[in-house]
Input
Amino acid sequence: MEANGPSVISPQAAAIGLLEGLWHMTAVNAPQGNLGRFTNDEIAEYVGWYASADLLVDILVSERWVDQCDIHRLVVHNWHKHCPQYIKGNLSKHNKKFAIYGPIEEAERVPRCHNYNDFRKRILERDQHECQYCGMKADQVDHIKEQRAGGDHSDDNVVACCRLCNINLIGESVDYKLLKQRAHKQRALSKVVPTNVPPNLTKPNLTQSEKKRVLRNTPKENDPGVGDPLCATVDWIMFRWNEIEGVKHINEDPPLETKKRIAARIREHPKKAWWDDKFFSRVGASNYLRGKSNVAFRATLDWACGPKSMTKILNDLYLTDLYPTTQRKVDGADALLGEGASE
Output
């Protein structure tokens, strides 16, 4: 079948084809991104460029698709961020790193650490084998200020990290890494850590589940309300709830998620007076929540401390024998009947 006119390919389609060929060449033959291991003629031949090979490389460098580097000559721009995921996995499996672009002056080059295994082991033990960026188990170390930028092997510049963070943070700035460290430390400080372990926890006849239960019921220094007689505590909220007749009472050892939900509400409203005046008084006055209505429902403390449920309780939506949605429908029907009767 003969064409009606000459075959024309748009410049955009040709550029996309060249770039796809370049990335395919990198993925297959230079997975670390060090494209400079091949000559300009080899690169041009692979992607199907039949003009000047040096012109092709100059265009790629000027448009920032490829970066010049005095170590690898040519490096694919941000290859460590945009390469396929399987390449990251393969490099991590074989303990290889991506090629990093950027000029390095001879005076800024940092000599390699000769006893690297001992150095790495010491850093991991110092950070307790915990990644200083995400908190996961660490098996590698990372230079905050990278060696290519003049970073040294001092303890202040090296932290423990996991493989994933070590790969994803390649080429990131020092400020970004320090920000990630501060965020991790804030998350670690926000965790509930038992400070006063009861004596019976050391008994050898306790099972693991019994030890967890003892730790769960032990007051912590950073628990809401601890140390202030005017502030509510989780145990006080549970005690006051069990005094209400009709609701489902909570046992002495509730799930940890229930305690966390109660503690979250205490942080919003810490005073005991608020709980008595605003919350428990409304729950005690609601027949619906206490199971004394025609609807077979009895409120639980875990449900009542949910954000949506507590909002409805505080807005007096449960001071009725019906569910709020049903009550609104009944009120709407009564209003319509009243209008019809008036007409």
